[in-house]
Design brief:
The protein is mainly α and 183 residues long. 47% of the residues lie in helices and 10% in strands. The strands form 3 sheets. Strands 1-2 form a two-stranded antiparallel sheet.
Length: 183
Amino acid sequence: MAFTYVSGRPCLDFMGTLKYRGGAGAEELLTGPECLSEWAIQAGLVGAAVDVADGDLAAALSVREAAYRIVIARLEGRRPPVADVALVNEWAAQPRITPRLLRSGATRREGTAAQLPATLAADLLDLLAGTDIDNVKRCAHDGCTRLYVDSSRGRNRHWCGMGTCGNQAKVQAFRARQRASAR
């Protein structure tokens, strides 16, 4: 499976592995432990497959959901849920994935399944502590629940990505104009 990485931060991209949240059409992309390993490889967090058990996947998904609720609370000017704060802080304090320097001078990223949510929780804390949090937005496309850092020059980006929601929104607007002019 090819995952989408358009959010500007690993923690936000990880949140995007549950599409169309809150509705009947919610779509879980991490349907098994091997999917979490593949997501981490494609995200560049690790260079090779990680052994992930069902419990590791469940832990990662609980961190993902807590992180999402924390960012949404921040965007809405509310305090995040206490249990979510405790969970993210607990994971962020754990050992993270780090690159290793090889004798050849090259580097390699490797880690364990437990280091994946720890790394993502730490990335969330870095996001919240930095200036990028002020540029985090929700995708404006109907039904999309992806969050992203708007790093555009004018800070006027509307969609999580042009190749995904932006293109769909523009096609829908074009078709609506075509129908209106045909009347």
